[in-house]
User: Fold these one by one.
Assistant:
Number 1:
Amino acid sequence: MSTNNSLEQDITPAVVAWLADQRAAGFGQDQLLKSLIEAGWGEAAARHLLAMPAMVGPDHLPFPLPVPWPAHAGERLALDAGDRQVNAITVLQDPPLLVLEGLLSSEECQELIEAAAPRMSRSLTVDVKTGGEETNVARTSEGMFFERGESELISRIEARIGELLGWPVENGEGLQVLHYGPGAEYKPHYDYFDPAEPGTASILQRGGQRVATLVMYLNEPEAGGATVFPDATLAVVPKCGNAVFFSYSQPHPVSRTLHGGAPVLTGDKWIATKWLREREFI
Ligand code: PD2
Ligand code: ZN
């Protein structure tokens, strides 16, 4: 490996193979960054390389990442979420998915809606072409992000999610609240960042890939608004305080986590989404 200040030029098959070996041997991001810099890589180029997923096997699928999963899910109805017990009433293995009952109290749902309502604007999605944000015709909701830990309510809910999923609170993105009026929907998509897109490497600098999603329902639309999983032929109907959790160890359609928000037919729909990253999200 030679000294390099550009981002791409030294990502040869030999470097990719070296990286896969080092990861298989258990070396973490910090140790790999140190090794690359010692070998003469510029820090920016090394970080860029380390943000790219390792590809494995004859199909060149992304290397599977560790994902959250609640202790005893699928073995017991009631799961420990620290200050609350939560019931896992539906359990799928492929994709790994749980429908959770009673994650939030009805007071917490109402408080979240009231705190979010004055701060709503047309929803943006992360643009993987550029790494920036843009409005998206596939997503006709309005939304806002809470900062992680910005109030006692948010901290309480984040701590509960961390306990339930066994995943560090620091690895969570800020909680996003979305509101869908009649006719609004979120067309089917994957929540991970597509490794093939040019903006993904820069998005991954802030905590790595998304590895799991928790969608919490804050109210009940009169009709429509289910969260649908076409590969699993599953529709989760919103119920205040319930949630759907699913993980994706590989940022690839093999995860079978294609999902969407079906159009709201009557009434409106409020949700809060927590996306979990591989590492601390800064
Ligand atoms: O509102 C939903 O059901 C929904 C559907 C798809 C939410 C999300 N994705 C999300 O927040 O990622
Ligand atoms: Zn989604």
Note: Residues 78-277 form a domain with the Jelly Rolls fold (CATH 2.60.120.620).
Number 2:
Amino acid sequence: MTSLDSRKSSPRKVVLTAFGTRPELIKLGPVLAEIETRADLFQTVNVNSGQHADLLVPFVKLFGTRIDHDLQVMRPNQPLNLLFAKILNAIDPLLESSQPDVVLVQGDTTTAAAVALAAFQRRIPVAHVEAGLRTNDPLSPFPEEMNRRVITRLARWHFAGTKNHVRTLRNEGVSRADIFLTGNPVVDALNGIGRAECSPALQELLNRTAGLKRIAFTSHRRENFGSRLEENLRVVRRFVERHADTAVLFPMHPNPVVRATAHAVLAGVDRVHLLEPLDYVDFIRLLSESWLIASDSGGVQEEAPSLGKHLLILRESTERQEVLETGLAQLAGTPELFSEMLHSHYWNNVIAVPTKNPFGDGRAAPRIARILQRVLTLEPAPAKQVMA
Ligand code: UDP
């Protein structure tokens, strides 16, 4: 029994949630926790594809996420098509055995796209968290921009973080009735960690770099691999060598290309700290204690405005236009531009500017849980169901 019509008539609705990477769990963790508080209404089946195996561990702990199935699909350097096929293959029996009423995916990863396709082929409705992001360049970010578009076509319900993302979905022909403006649950996650204490190791590094202008740097996007990543790292190196009052803290993504390039260009440079990936509390603390952030990450673009931090986005385009509108972020898509912007920030004395986060108010998770409750049980619509 897999079709919508023939699904069993259990009083509890089965929500199968699939994730595999760090950003997916950061954004789905609060949603899952919220859904699980409604255990009388929902039964959850939580599936980790294993796309980011070890990287996920501290996040599973932080959100207290129960993993029911681990698909363990990751192998070093495997082609995207093989990864996609393995996820499709491994999720299908779970869809058959658990008969979910809805499959919940987030964002734009290979896990999200493969699971959404598998659910669609079994006629199980898909709900998409963080819907409507677009750079409009199919190759950037790669392959995520195409994954997002594909998921939009496959999904039944779309949870958008901002009005802009609602508009994008409408322009692509998605029915207004199927789009919900919820805010992005990354703000829920960020608020959730509150003033949690960072690790002694990070505290020690903060002490050692006290008084210096700290630059938090991350880079892991495929489209930056090669000469772009190398050149950006050379820019960092020259900048730090020239300015004795600066320090760079670079939590490296485990991707071997990132690590090899970082070591080749930056190892042994004074005041450059190459770090292992940080857990969420430490990473957010690092951002908070930084003078400037330079990153090609998607999630960091949402976190920087909450922290009032200036951000140089190491990309040519962004699917998060809203962060540019805060005035805190600028696109630094080429190494030349990155270098220019670093230097102009240096002379212009960057200061933190607390601002309202355009990505949400920290209540996306309860909204999503309530909307799922309504669409799955067909309760009447509440008077106000979207973000103010
Ligand atoms: N992050 C983290 N520790 C790190 C680096 C990043 O917790 O060492 C978090 C960061 O706060 C953000 C998310 O991971 O929310 C971003 O993940 P990533 O940059 O890998 O993916 P993207 O958001 O670009 O898809």
Note: Residues 1-7 have pLDDT under 50 and may be disordered.
